[in-house]
Description:
Helix content is 34%, strand content 9%. The longest helix is centred in the middle third of the chain and has 27 residues.
Amino acid sequence: MAPGPRRHGQTRQSQASEAGASRPRLTPYDLAVPAPVDPWTAFLQWLQTIIIPDWNGLIQLLPLLLIVGVVGPGLSLIALYWVFVQVTNRRGKVSVADPEPVVVAQLADGSYDYPANAPYCPTHHLVYPATARECPINSEELVVRCPIDSSVRVASQQLCRTCGTRYQLGAAISPVVVRRRGAPPAGGAAVA
């Protein structure tokens, strides 16, 4: 008997069985282990990642590139300008000295007019800074004249015993005195 016409479903099945016979069957081990790639193909794949960029990754890097490319140089220019100003700025130098005692002038009648609320030494007729409490010459305690009733009290006492007024001597703990460097140049300040 001659073979009759085949059905459509039988043709596909027979073609699939013929194709499977020509290909080797892959085991799970073959699927898990990668096949070695020749060096030239590996180099070309690596070169493709450099030549053809990943646009999605580059778009995500735009904020970082904006900060590094625009803000970074701006901040560096500001820092360099600040260093330039600090180096080239001419500032005056102030010499600080300790406050020294001031000699009190003698009045016409031979007495001395000591300022109120300032410690002074009646023996040497010197007015000291507000933080001083004893005379460095003879270690005698300094005295203060009350500005209200002109009574005299010891500088270490803050309360006037006559009027009851309480005073704290010295506006600052560490007074600053600026030392002069010398006289102006000959011809006055206009020459300088």
